Structures are given as C-alpha cells and as structure tokens.
C-alpha cells in the first residue's frame, strides 16, 4: 500500500513569493531519483497567498500534498505536522526558502541506500545570516553541547534525511516542547554527515527575529538539560559556605573588638547579592515549571484545518 519512497516535508509561512522557485528547483531533482516521491507542504497560518500557490501546484501534480494549520503554530509544530503525515521510506524536511540546497538530495539518498538511517547536511557557511546571528548560533551550540548529555551538531538545521524508522520514533514522542534538532539528535541511529554551503534566502523575508530565536534557544536548553537546575546546588553551597565564613569572622570580631555600628556597606552587599541570586534561581525553576505546566496540559501540537492528498487512515 505504501509505495512512497521519498517524502519531502516543507513548512511554509508566508512563502508565496518563493514557492515557484522552490518547486521549479526541487521537482526536477526528485524526478531524477524516483517517481515515487511526495512533497508535503504545511501552510503554517500564512497571511499571504501561500495556500493558493500550494494548491495550484497540487492541481498540477497530485504528489504535492498540502496541510493547512488553523493558525501560525511555528516552524517546529509545522514540521511535526508534516512528519506525522509523511509516508515515505525516507523523509527529508527542507525549508521553503531554498536556503537548504535540494541538489544535495540525491547524495543523501545514496548514503541512505548504503544503509545510513540518518544523513545530516551540515552547512560550511551561512552567507545569508548576519554576523550577530552566526555568532549567537555558535555560542548557543557551544553552550548546549557543554551542558546537554547528547551532542546536538552545530551548523545543522532540520535539513537532513531520516529513515522511516527514525520518523516513527519521533512521532511517538509525547512531548509538547518540540526542539526538533534536539529530538532528531536524541533518537540516535547510524548517521552520516554531508556538507554544503548555505545560500541566501531565494525570496521573501525570514519571520524569525532575535526574540523568537532567544525563546527557541531557551526551549533547546531547558528541554534538553536540567543542568541549570543542578547548578544552584553548587552556587547555594558556595554562597552558604561564604556566608558561614563571613558570619564567623563577624562574630569573632564582635567578641574580640566589641561592637561597632558601621556595617551598612557589607550588609547591603550581602542582601543584594542574596536577593539577586534567589530571584535568578527562582526564574530558572520557573522556566522548568512553565514547561512542565505546558506538558501536563497535553494540548495537541498543532491543529490541521484542512488536508489535501491524504487518506483518512492518517492522523
Ligand atoms: N516557518 C514556518 N512557520 C513559522 C516560521 C517559519 O513554517 O512560524 C518556515 C518558513 O516558511 C521556512 C522555514 O520555516 O520554510 C525556515 O524559516 P526561515 O527561513 O524564516 O528561518 P531561517 O532560515 O532564518 O532559520
Ligand atoms: Mg531561511
């Protein structure tokens, strides 16, 4: 029943301008590999003409399938929706803006046929991104790879080939906070790495801004390591030890030298320092509690408003 060899999963949010270029470049490449491909496009609550353009391509070729989410759920959720619906023996998520070169797909398929379950595409350069974005990405990976127990490959986006078996495991993850790169790395399997030069966006604009990226980075850190929680035991221990030492010194001084009133400065420093540390640690605990709260609500990851090209055996 399942004869799809290769599923391409494309989350698209306000990408109407770039989709012609996208299909124009991707479909010929897929045709050189197999006729049994499908392209699953997820319209992630676009406010422009994205849906109509997608449906136009679906009319021309029914192997183009379309999911429409009921609102903008964000790239991670859109990607999840696509992965849930992918039926290929190999699955490749790719950005609609052609920043991930589809020319790499045949090489990925070759590696997959050699037996690798995951083929990563690592970017050698990211010319479309600003200096700040490159730097912040670099620091993020350094940080997360130092504290998290599983390494998350730097310079590797969601563009990668995964065997159906890998996707099957990812589908079964119950968690709501979906830091896909982390989940992809977490499942493991035999992995091979290809490198490419990242291109600039073909059309349109990125809808990420630094605030979104910051929240995304926090999701990555807080859902892949509990290190920020543990670190307070050490900081607490250190602060208590210092407080004890300072307290002993103060008691000794009072006993031997008698009382003196001044002490405003040291008192203030200690109070402010402790206050600051407590707020910070509460904040960190809050980050986890908030995420636990979100997980316990068990809300669906995304809501599909309408589907084109899927039998209802899927959900
Ligand atoms: N995207 C999405 N939902 C969003 C934001 C982005 O589906 O809320 C899609 C977007 O259409 C593109 C991909 O995710 O196909 C990557 O987005 P973008 O190019 O803006 O991010 P960047 O390349 O800067 O990481
Ligand atoms: Mg992009």
Question: What would you note in describing this structure?
Answer:
- The chain has 315 residues and is an alpha/beta fold.
- The protein has 2 domains: 4-211 and 300-308, Spore Coat Polysaccharide Biosynthesis Protein SpsA, Chain A (Alpha-Beta Complex), CATH 3.90.550.10; 227-297.
- It has helices spanning 16-33, 50-60, 75-85, 105-113, 131-147, 164-171, 180-187, 210-224, 227-257, 264-297; strands at 6-12, 37-43, 64-69, 90-93, 118-125, 156-163, 191-197, 304-308.
- Strands 7-5-6-4-1-2-3-8 form an 8-stranded mixed sheet, with helices on both faces.
- The two termini are 17 Å apart.
- Residues 11-13, 15, 44, 72, 74-75, 78, 95-97, 99, 206-208 line the site of uridine-5'-diphosphate.
- Magnesium ion (MG) binds at residues 95, 97, 99, 201, 206.
Global structural class: alpha/beta
Which outline best applies? elongated
Q: List the secondary-structure elements in sequence, H or E.
A: EHEHEHEHEHEHHEHHHE
Strand residue percentage: 15-25%
Q: On the 0-100 scale, what is the average pLDDT? A: 83
Q: What is the name of the CATH class of the largest domain? A: Alpha Beta
CA gyration radius, whole angstroms: 25 Å
CATH-defined superfamily of the largest domain: Spore Coat Polysaccharide Biosynthesis Protein SpsA, Chain A
The CATH topology assignment of the largest domain is: Spore Coat Polysaccharide Biosynthesis Protein SpsA, Chain A
For the largest beta sheet, what order do the strands appear in spatially?
Answer: 7-5-6-4-1-2-3-8
Layout of helices and strands:
Blueprint: E1 6-12, H1 16-33, E2 37-43, H2 50-60, E3 64-69, H3 75-85, E4 90-93, H4 105-113, E5 118-125, H5 131-147, E6 156-163, H6 164-171, H7 180-187, E7 191-197, H8 210-224, H9 227-257, H10 264-297, E8 304-308
Parallel strand pairs: 1-2, 1-4, 2-3, 5-7
Antiparallel strand pairs: 3-8, 4-6, 5-6
Helix pairs in contact: 1-2, 5-8, 9-10
